Amino acid sequence: DFPPDDQGFHNFDEVNAELDKTVQDHGDIAVRSSVGKSHEGRDIPMLKISDNAAQDENEPEVLFNCNQHAREHLTTEMCLRIVNRFTDGYASDPAVKEMVDNREIWVVPVTNPDGSIRDVESGQYQSWRKNTQDPNGTDTNRNWDYKWGCCGGSSDDPNAEDYRGPSAFSTPEASALGKFVDSRVIGGKQQIRAHIDWHTFSELVLWPFGHTNDQVTEGMTQQEYDRFARVGKEMAQTNGYTPQQSSELYVTDGDTTDWMWGKHKIFSFTFEMFPSSGGVDGFYPDDEVIEKETARNDAAVDILLREAGAGA
Ligand SMILES: NS(=O)(=O)N[C@@H](Cc1ccccc1)C(=O)O
Ligand SMILES: [Ca+2]
Ligand SMILES: [Ca+2]
Ligand SMILES: [Ca+2]
Ligand SMILES: [Ca+2]
Ligand SMILES: [Zn+2]
Fold this sequence. Notes:
The protein is of the alpha/beta class.
C-alpha cells in the first residue's frame, strides 16, 4: 500500500472498490468491464459512462487511460476524477449531463496494475515504471504495434527503462487495450474519436508523432497536424502545461498515441501532469496536491470531449 502520508492515493483494491461504488450509485450511466488480463492475471478495469450505458449508441466515443507507467500514480487519480465528475455531476450539472447524454466515455484508471502494485506493495516507493514481465519488465509505452522499434525511440536492452519488449504487443497490457480499441471498429468505422493517455510528470500536452521529428509525414497531413497543434494549444491554455509534438521532447517509437492516430486516426494526446520538474521525487507528489492537480485538467477534458463531436 501507499506510505501512511500518501493514503490519499487509491491502491488497486481501492480503485476497484471506487468503480464498484460508482456503478452502485449510477448504474444507469455507468457500466464496468475488463479490458483484459495483465501479465500476472489481474483484470484491467474499465468504466463506460453514458446515458443508456448498457446500450452501444451512435454517439462519439472518447477513451481516457491512466497509470500505464507504474509509478505515475497521480494519473490514476486523474481518471477517478473524470469518473466522479461525469457520474456524480450528472444530476446536478446540466453541462455534465449534456456531455454524458451525447458521448460514450471509456475510462481505464489502471492500465498497468501489476507494475502499479509492485511500486507500492512494500510500503516504500520502488520508482518502478514498466510492467512485470520477465526478466525486468517491458515499457508498455514502447510496445504498441505502430512502427514498433523503428526509429531509435526505445531500447532492446531488457534492463532499460524504455525496453520495447521482444515484439510489438508482447505485453498483455498494451495488447489488451489495443484489442479493445480494435473492437470499436464497427461497420468499418472506428467509434472512438479522441483519447488521452495520462502520464506524469513535466506538465506537457503532447501530440503525435513521437517516432519522427517531422510534423508532416506518412499518416499526418499538414491539416491534421495543424488540428493537433490548435487543440493542443487550446487545452494547454487552460491548464498551463506546455503544448508540443511529443518528439520535441524526445523521439519514441511504439508509443500509445502513435498507434491511436497511426492505426485508427483517433485524435490522441499524451498529458504529462504535475510537477513541472523534480528528479525521481517528481513521480511522488504529496497526496495533498491530488484535488488541485486533477481539477486543473477539467477544462482540457471538456475541450477534448467537445472536439470529439466536431466533424461528427
Ligand atoms: N511519462 S514518462 O516520464 O515516461 N514520459 C513519456 C513521454 C512520452 C509519451 C508519449 C510519447 C512520447 C513521449 C514516455 O513514455 O517517455
Ligand atoms: Ca500527505
Ligand atoms: Ca449513450
Ligand atoms: Ca457507440
Ligand atoms: Ca444519448
Ligand atoms: Zn509515463
